[in-house]
Amino acid sequence: MSETVSAAEPGKAPEESEQCESYLEAGGHTLMSWLTTTDHKRIGILYAIAITFFFFIAGIAIGLVRLELMSPRGLFLSDDEYNRLFSLHGIVMVWFFLVPSIPATFGNFFLPLMIGAKDVAFPRLNLLSWYVYLLAAGFACYAIVAGGVDTGWTFYTPFSSLYSNGNVLAAAAGVFVAGFSSIATGVNFITTTHMLRAPGMTWFRLPLFVWAIYATSVVIVLATPILAMSLLLIIAERLFGLPVFNPNDGGDPILFQHLFWFYSHPAVYIMILPAMGVISEVFTCFARRHIFGYAMMIYAILGIAVIGFFVWGHHMFVSGESQFANLMFSLLSFLVAVPSAIKVFNWTATLYRGSISFEAPMVYAMGFVGLFTMGGLTGLFLASIPIDVHVTDTYFVVAHFHYIMVGGSVSAFFAALHFWWPKITGKLYSEAWARFAAVIMFLGFNSTFLPQYIMGYTGMPRRYHVYPPEFQAYHVLSSMGALVLLTAYMLPLVYLTWSLFHGKKAPANPWRATGLEWQTPSPPPEYNFEEIPRVDTLPYEYHPENQGGPFRPQGKVIGGK
Amino acid sequence: MSDDPSVVQFPWPTVARQREGVAFGMWTFLGSEILFFGGLLLTYAVYRTLYPQAFNSGSAATDIFYGTINTALLLTSSFIMTMALRGSESGSRGVVAACMLTTAAFGLAFLAVKGLEYAEDIDKHLVPGPHFPLHPPARLFFAFYWVATGVHAIHLLVGILVAVFLGIRVALRQMAPESTAIEAASLYWHFVDSVWIVLYALIYLPGRSGA
Amino acid sequence: MTWGVLRHAGVWILLLLLLGATAASSSFDLGENGAVLRLGIAGLQVLLIWLLFMDLLGSSSLVRLCAISAFLWILLLFGLTFSDYFTRGWNGTSTRYPARTATW
Ligand SMILES: [Cu+2]
User: Fold this and answer.
1) Contacts of C73 in chain A (CB under 8 A)
2) How far is the CA of A402 from the centre of ligand 1 (A)?
3) I need a surface site. Which of A23, A499, A547, B50 has the fewest CB within 10 A?
4) Does the predicted interface ipTM exceed a cut of 0.90?
5) Which of residues 190-209 of A touch B (CB under 8 A)?
6) Rounded to whole angstroms, what are the CA distances from A192 to A195, A539, A549, B20?
7) pLDDT-based confidence at residue C98 (cuts at 50, 70, 90)
8) Per CATH, which fold does B35-209 belong to?
9) Are A28 and A458 in contact (CB under 8 A)?
10) pLDDT by residue (tens digit) across C12-49?
């Protein structure tokens, strides 16, 4: 990496400053100083620690599942244990890792930095939302320790409300409370983006990561309450016997699915939109190009956020929804592919004639585009009713959404982690190890999930641990891939931690990037900027014509140098 | 209302900007709340469409007397809350404290009446269960009744706690009467009031004409 | 200041009158019109509170946008959900929910 750290532009990229204390120093090193902080950067790190913990909890659960699936008769789990493990994996990964992953960590850390603000709009609410997340996590942990849940992550009624003997109450309460944490964060980000942009930072000068986080926040605020209500109704039914979805009293279990998917389809965009924002930052920086179709990218982000609300019925093609509704939701689902495709084409066009270099964040980002495209295209299969009827509840569906959520969101999470690590910690990691991990992750991912497409299409249903022997080869391949993937996920834990203690000191702008966050020292001072910067240009001005330099920052940061 | 250091908070540059931001943030949150109750109303709408008679018979079994009294209480509390906000705008500490606490008192009165009503409902076995007196789909109505009024009562309780907290802090001079928290609290209070207005129309009024 | 209080007091009286009207209307048999009337009055009361007590009238367009988009999303939720319920059994392949076998 050190070879890419040029001496930067005189007067553009500021050097380390002696006089302003970094956010890691200011306020002290004590545990209490972290637990009572209202600094958005520290809160971002608090979130990062919490979600990493849950990432590995859910990872262990799925590791056991993959081990179990090595043999067609199962190896060591009972039916009930198996159900509880994959449910645990789904619930924890979705609500305790993926939903908060990029927004609550990198969004928290970088949204104010990128718009030139000193903090988010409501710093104390920001800290509160972390504690609310911890409370939710407490419920979830209780549900796990007390024996687990067996409903799958979807909590379908009437099984969840009437029949399941797992800890549905604790798990639903956990997800319900986690929703409040998301909403608080969403409200905070929306208000921040509207109210605290630096002078000159107009809406059409915002970096796409900011746009993505903003759109995600809007989706969070509008969708999460419906999830909260649907879970509350399950809780009412289980706890007080109030029959909301009970067919014996005339209740309609499909109504639950409407409510659930009204949230949970847009939730896919809560997970993928921030990832798309990251990719736009990384691609422009490492291809040294401005983004192709900046305005179109914004419209695509907003289009995805809005149209994403129109398609939820595609999860219910075989569950008793009317045929008219099936057709309508199918059509609408095809529509949402358009803005996603626009984004992929624009990224590709951004690379065209760029001077591309393959630093670790770029390798992760490249992986994202390939895997996201695979996941997106198979999504079109599932939007088409005849094919969906054939592959409903098979591994085809499992492979599809893992390509989006793991291949897409998690790859982008690692891209973001490597891109911004020098800024967050002030340390440089080992570039060779990082690239190696990125490649391993890509290979491991494909060998885990590609076989799942095939076995799903040929009939292997999801959520069974006993299966016909002809699927064994695919399952073994998939489990082996999972092992590789696990290794790839452990590697950054090691070399990034190592860099904290032994890494070289990072300059303010190691990638020679244009965003405001790179113009302030690494790690940033407590209030981000000594003085609110003034923004006078578009984002991504790499190779700006008539400017003489190889890149042009969005604004000058006073006191940064 | 200058940039009073006791009102303006980090990271806002000015009180005016902060006021704008707090109102906007609160409305964003209320947007979320609207959808929260919207999901509940959807279950009502779907089941009311499927079982109109059962829902009418369910409504007829509720106590309209309590419901109407409570609506009047909340409407009045909202009016008093507007006076608290006026007091805040003119910076009069006494008005803000008095109106906040009176508003909270009306909220408490609402909860007390609601408690009486709940006691009667339980007495009449109107909780879906073994002795429920009406036909099965009316159980769906009463499931809605308990969830909706319960969730509303929790919202109101939060509003009461906030109003008491702010009222006392203003009275004890720990908080400026111009604090932007007053406006945020008032927005929340009015919203909870307006939820009740809709619930009143859906729960208490239908099915009373004996048709 | 007093003028503002008077105006809010007027709104409060109006709200109480509307409450009286809607409560009284419930004892007359108006068929489905009754439901429209009740919801109409409730909507009017909510509108009064939102526009005048919560001062949406005097707010920035940004704040109004919040309220409006929440309602658009409610419309979306209801519209698409009912597009399922209203079309169950259109072509005879799926049954209207519920299959009415029970006594009720
Ligand atoms: Cu979907």
Assistant:
1) 222, 309
2) 13
3) A547
4) yes
5) 190-191, 194-196
6) 5, 19, 32, 12
7) low
8) Four Helix Bundle (Hemerythrin (Met), subunit A) (1.20.120)
9) no
10) 999 999 999 999 998 888 877 888 999 999 999 999 99
